[in-house]
Amino acid sequence: MKILVCIKQVPGTSQVEIDETTGTLKRDGVAAKMNPFDLYALETAVRIRDAAGGDSSVTVLSMGPPQCEKVVREAFAMGADAGAILSDRAFGGADVLMTSFTLSQGVAKTGPYDLVVCGKQTTDGDTAQVGAELAEWLGIPHVACVKSVDRVGPDSIDVTVDLPDREVAQRVPYPVLLTVEKGIFEPRLPSYTLMKKTADRPIQWLALADLPDTDPKHYGLNGSPTQVKRIFPPDARAERTMLEGDAAAQADALADLLEERKFLR
Hints:
Blueprint: E1 2-7, E2 9-11, E3 32-34, H1 36-52, E4 57-63, H2 69-77, E5 82-86, H3 96-110, E6 115-119, H4 130-138, E7 142-152, E8 156-162, E9 167-173, E10 176-180, H5 192-197, E11 204-206, H6 220-223, H7 247-260
Parallel strand pairs: 1-4, 1-6, 4-5, 5-11, 6-10, 7-10
Antiparallel strand pairs: 2-3, 7-8, 8-9
Helix pairs in contact: 3-4
């Protein structure tokens, strides 16, 4: 079984500057880490590979500036077998649609795969859209919000989906894309032994010219149908009101305050 995991490098701090022209995050020089949700996706993929046995393998695919090599190397230390990076200035400023399209081109170049695993969302965008959109570009079914993998078969996989009001068991044939919830498995720590062993493992670097579709109008800010008009950090307010007296007096004072501010009628 050939398994692909999409991983992303995200800012490791909330103190990130915004490019006022493009409305995108300034990632250069900012401390970064692997998207936490992707750690669960990677652990899921490694466990499925081990359950499937044979010549099964896990490849990680990331899109970003050259420094995202760090998270691919981290994935090697957690058990991934191969890695590829989509890196080109033409990809910069992509919205979720163009991000998913670019990833689909990377899949077309490095695949095909029986199973694609993604984290539910990223901590810098929080849209939870890229996984589903990637499946659409690939023309394969997808299952979102997967909370457990119940069976790994030769032709299909059984999963449990966490819906808002119920849990649903599903059996889906390969190829399929899964987006997984946090907590599906406990991610393993990077292995120092694997880190040393894979230090020189080659990574496949993919630029625009390497992809099946080389039209720059289909990528990045140029190809994105949605663009951020304005983005800014929220105002930090330190204002507070202290209520004095016993519980009854504080309750009355709180009710008066809420009524005064028109939260109560």
